[in-house]
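**Archive record**
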Amino acid sequence: MIKPVCSAVPTNLITGFLGAGKTTLIQQLLAQKPSHERWAVLVNEFGQIGIDQALMGTSQDIYIKEVAGGCICCANALPMHIALSQLLAKAKPQRVLIEPTGLGHPKQILETLSESHWQTTLALQATLCVIDARQYQDPRVQTHESFLAQAEVADILVFSKNEVLDDAQRASVLDFARQLPPPERQTVFISQGQLDANYLAMPKRPSRQVKRSLLHSLPTALPPVGLVNQDSIEAPYHYHQRALETEVGGWVFPASWQFNHNALLDVLFALTTLRIKGVMHTQEGWLAINLTPLDASLNSTHEAYDSRLEIISEQPIDWSTLERELLNTRLMT
């Protein structure tokens, strides 16, 4: 029998750029959870449609809660306070993992969680930053404000997808790690998201203030956080918006709607985007989709409450045309 929490809960922040492999890493860490413990995960989706809860699933001893519709590290942190308080009260976990959006700055989150009223509730341990060394080869990533901010606050730099990296890519990210402001961070290369869960218990490094631009703090830079109640979204539903110089949009479809597996993938693979993530009901079963410019992950998954698809793109998208193409793949019975 799992006992209620009586002391501060060990808590980790797991950051990383879009498509770096955060969700895969968290899934593998959850698989290593001690059988007698209950863990909780707070996920911040940049868009308004939560996907990760459907991908990770929830069980008796794993609780997932999403904060969708923006970045919990910006402007008003109230949605994070509320979501975290609800998660702690409901789950009474022995560990909390927090996954911010891949376009966010985590420094503000760490500052919020270090405030006095959280210190008796949460025990902050190592912050992990997941980096795909292949993404790092893009000069735009190397100078991206969010990417640099995520790496600077990390205690451990987790270089993912080692199975497809070459020696030059490995050397480049290790050189990047050495050039970050002190104190030195631990580095580790992983394959298939497999990281020893003992890394979570590592202590935080002594903090060092790093000055960055004020751009990310502007309230107009991001959509409001937490304005979309995931329980209140009724399918079919669509939204799109522009934020942080990206196009963001998505759909929720009724679970009873089935889509042609191959035709749906033809539509999605024809797009040029930063990320496509979803859980869709096809005639071949439920499909978990995670596409980036460097990777395509397609896996069978458990039945979901509805089908969900979310797209983040640097290029303009004709949302009306794309919706028509998606609906054309629906199987009519």
